[in-house]
């Protein structure tokens, strides 16, 4: 089975997704977790584009932006207290 450069690129992006997921789980500061979620969403968009599914990429970008903005508003309204 031969891999092309796109396959390696997707594997690297998937590794970044796993690291971002773990980082969101272990980070205590809510604002930092929201920022990592935005990066997670961006990496998902890149994966969908590499897989030639631009419709899913646009949907993920729109949903990721909306959720990131909504979570930032909630974090700023409730406060950024670290426990």
Explain what you see.
The chain has 83 residues and is an all-alpha fold. It has a domain at 28-78. The protein is built from three helices and no strands. Helix 2 packs antiparallel against helix 3. It is flat. The mean pLDDT is 90.
What would the average pLDDT be, to the nearest integer? 90
Show unreliable segments.
Answer: none
- Quickly give the structural class: mainly alpha
> Helix coverage percent of residues?
over 70%
Gap from first CA to last CA: 49 Å
Sheet having the most strands: none
Strand portion? under 5%
Query: Which word captures the global form?
Result: flat
| β-strand number | 0
The run of helices and strands is: HHH
Compute the CA-based radius of gyration: 15 Å
What is the count of helical runs?
3
Summary, kept brief:
By secondary structure, the chain is mostly helical.
List its salient traits.
83 residues; mainly alpha
Give the topology, please.
Blueprint: H1 5-26, H2 30-50, H3 54-78
Helix pairs in contact: 1-2, 2-3
